[in-house]
Amino acid sequence: MVANRPTIKDVAKQAGVGVVTVSRALNDKEGVSDQTRERIKAVADEMGYRANRYARFLKLANNKNIALMIKGIDNPFFQQMLDTMETATRSRDYLLSIVKVPHWSDEIEEAAKLVNEDVVSGIIFLGGNFTHETNLFKKLNVPFVLSTMSMVEDVPEDVYSSVAVDDFAEAKKAVGRLIELGHRKIALVGGDSLDTSVARLRTEGYNAALAEAGIKHDPKLVPHSDIGRKSPYSYQYGFDVTNKLLDEHGDVTAIFAIADVIAIGALKAAQGRGMSVPEELSIVGFDGIPVTDFITPSLSTIVQPAKQIAQLSCELLFDSMEGKPTRHELVSAQFKEGGSIAPPRGQR
């Protein structure tokens, strides 16, 4: 039996570099140092890798396509980042291809399929989880950046770059503002400690703010709803969970929602019951999407710098594609006080 001939991925693994780097080196393309090029060619020769197998990988070496993996494509916060990302990639003569990742899917597995088909030169993950099996990342032989997420647990930081706000600290700030106003019955809508996306970090920030103020955590004020395969980052989710909350705990005086879309759904639920916001219920969101200025009352929220995150995400990806070290950027967010919060009744 004839042994399987080595593939370009075998060469990449043996040389400790990515598939793109191997393809560029073997085809004398730019973007690879002379020392690395010679080392890769030596590895290929030792493994018996033949030139007639190069052809199907040429499209990868010359590929001018960046995949934007969006987990939550309906989220308005993500949508406002797209123009900036497209402009940044086009300025480098690359095409930005948007890939929708369903809420229940593993975005790393979805990206690995694209890499296996040799159709992308880099990947930006917009949204997603930060707990994955480490071996999944070994399948991504192209540079990638986590956008709006700061880390992946148990995966070395030199494997990827990231851009995000400090979700924990910003959530703590938002809940702290409600506490400053005198609120003690503060509900959280949209996340729990079992969540492995930014919702978990924002939940931890909520818990930390309560603990620092000496307010006992009440799990009844962290309601949830069975969503099946639907995304929890939606107006409908905020509406449904808030109605459930108010049915069961009508004495709540404030809500911290982990996303603006959830907060707007919560506002709709409260107003549908004839409740006055903020006189009877204060609501704070997270993201700073433009519509928060055009609802009544305007929403108090943590404003993430969407364009800055989008621009940095692209810059870090291209840096990685050029062989520069990975970086992890935390950008600043701001608390915008709208008309949706006030001291609870009896403390005005």
Automatic annotation (TrEMBL):
The keyword Cell inner membrane does not apply. Pfam families: LacI (PF00356), Peripla_BP_3 (PF13377). Keywords: DNA-binding, Transcription, Transcription regulation. Residues 6-60 form the HTH lacI-type domain. InterPro entries: HTH_LacI, LacI/GalR-like_sensor, Lambda_DNA-bd_dom_sf, Peripla_BP_I. CDD domains: HTH_LacI, PBP1_LacI_sugar_binding-like. SUPFAM superfamilies: lambda repressor-like DNA-binding domains, Periplasmic binding protein-like I. GO terms for molecular function: DNA-binding transcription factor activity; transcription cis-regulatory region binding. It comes from the Bacteria. This is HTH lacI-type domain-containing protein. It comes from Propionimicrobium lymphophilum ACS-093-V-SCH5.
